Task: structure prediction
Amino acid sequence: MEKVQSTTHVQGDGRARLYNFRQDELAKWFQSRGEPAYRGRQVFQWLYQHLAVTFDEMTNLPKPLRSRLAECAVIGTAQERLRQVSKVDGTVKFLLAWPDGVTVETVLMRHNYGNSVCVSTQVGCKMGCRFCASTLGGMIRQMTAGEMVEQLMFSARLLRQEGGRVSSVVLMGSGEPMDNYDEAMKFIDIIHDPDGLNIGLRHITVSTVGLVPGIVRLADDGRPVTLAVSLHAPTDELRSSMMPVNRAYPIAKLLDACRYYCRKTGRRISFEYALVGGKNDSLEHARQLASLVRDIPCHINLIPVNYVPERNLRRTPRDQVLAFQRELQAQGVNATVRREMGHDIAAACGQLRAEYAGRV
Result:
């Protein structure tokens, strides 16, 4: 049975979680404690430009203030439970645990164009997609913006040791970002801040299974992020069998929202299409898919489905994946095949968490 818990922006002991604050909120928090507002900017820069993990590192703050901060605030609360590193491509997968006992995955992917971090927005997921490991245990609770930030910081600190930095972020881990909209957008605002990590909005991707109200809201909010929509089937009957959300927001309604997003933002959409052997991977499926999206500024990201033991899905053979791609291109639709990363370290969302839960 699904268990949803609420979270707050303070610890159980009353200490403030600093990763939960935008810079303007941090300035107001300091003012509320009788300190000048500029202390908020100083601390924000220490958190994100210097990647500080203790208050003692914040050497331009008076020592008495650092001592008081240690009593009333906390920087990070997550602990690393497991880390897997791919021997194939250097992908790093972290399993993190929070004080209430929940665990969440985050993944660092190394590309020739930069380093990308995949962030989870919920503990588990309630969307019920048939090919995904994240949804197996239902949705436990939402992640706060600060908990999303903290996931990112594990990769940022690792990259700093190597002389690198996080260049892009994808909200494609466990959970549905549009089902945790306010916290996901606050997370984006925090990591986009020029005094912090300064990650450009065009280098941030928000993924959704197709929650139409969230797509419309994102279009109206004015954050020109990249929108990735999980489509995965060209007909309502097939998509509903794979993704229960389609019963609430069928393909026609979803694509209307996507067209609105393109008109409003001027950005093209990435349609994610997981190829499942014998289910949605025929050339006829490719032609049906092309006819659906041909009038939308977009590209199709083809994803050979990850093997999830509980799902017993069959992967589409590589030559058939490429034939599907060629057919889309012949129909005038741009299509790429996603480079598989971390294939040797349970890289599918939710797999590491599920494996860990089975061991403890």
Observations:
- Residues 1-8 have pLDDT under 50 and may be disordered.
- The chain is about 35% helix and 20% strand.
